[in-house]
Design a protein that fits this description.
Elements: H1 8-13, E1 19-25, H2 30-44, E2 51-55, H3 60-65, E3 73-78, E4 81-86, H4 92-104
Parallel strand pairs: 1-2
Antiparallel strand pairs: 1-3, 3-4
Helix pairs in contact: 2-4
Length: 105
């Protein structure tokens, strides 16, 4: 299951989910590609939180307001507001548990 890429404008304009995740990446970042693959596996395994991916190079507003320090970055968002940012994509299991815990909180 692929995670759909959105532009910053598309993400900001759509209807917000109560709980969701945003994965920030850059196209040439190898660690980002690995993190994205781990998120796709976690999602296929049943992690409930919807996930969007956004190229941070074209997301200056979210990058600055949310203070995204580096990529890859997985930001957990509740009602349109960031509540947690993860920069270390340790394992599929860690990401799966993080998303499941967040979805049920």
């Amino acid at each position: 299951m692929a995670i759909e890429e959105q532009t910053e404008r598309e993400w900001l304009a759509r209807e917000k989910a109560p709980r969701e995740a945003v994965f920030f990446f850059t196209p040439l970042c190898g660690t980002c590609k690995i993190g994205l693959r781990m998120l796709e596996i976690a999602q296929a395994a049943g992690a409930d939180a919807p996930i969007a991916k956004i190229n941070i190079n074209y997301a200056p507003e979210l990058r600055d307001v949310w203070r995204i320090a580096s990529v890859p970055a997985l930001v957990l968002v509740r009602d349109g507001e960031p509540v947690q940012a993860e920069y270390a994509m340790r394992s599929v299991d860690t990401l799966y548990r993080l998303l499941q815990t967040f979805s049920s909180s």
